[in-house]
Amino acid sequence: MPGHKKNPPLLLLCLIAGTLDAVAAILMSLKYPVASVFQYIASGWFGPAAFKGGAMMVIWGIVFHYFIASFYSILFFCLYPAFRRFIGNKFVIAIVIGVLIWAIMEFLVLPFTDIPRRTSPESISSMLIGAGVLCITLGAPIVIFADRYYRRS
Prior knowledge:
- The chain is mainly alpha-helical.
- Helices cover 74% and strands 0% of the residues.
- It is built from five helices and no strands.
- The radius of gyration is 17 Å and the shape is globular.
């Protein structure tokens, strides 16, 4: 249909970005059981009880994980045209998005959750790794999907 704008592939973007980020979290936590990765995420809402809640807390952790990844995927998908206008370079945009998501989570979201607090300050290398992972698992898929969608419009 001429002039008809195709619906954005947001569900697929959310599934891919959420899954990539979940796999990265699991790979970065290989010394822990996979279930504990998602219990840790659930502990943001449920506190220490998440680590004793068994399968239900793992499910909550997965739900929270995909909700958060989907929120950022949709938000930055919608903001992509502005990033494209001001930054231009797709690779730089993916990096900016990843770093922004990391900073928002690290400084604005996580301090207000019940996740276990670190006993020592986070190292620069672990901050860079965390931000870098988000550039790849969320920033890159968002840019790929958004760039394809907005170029067709």
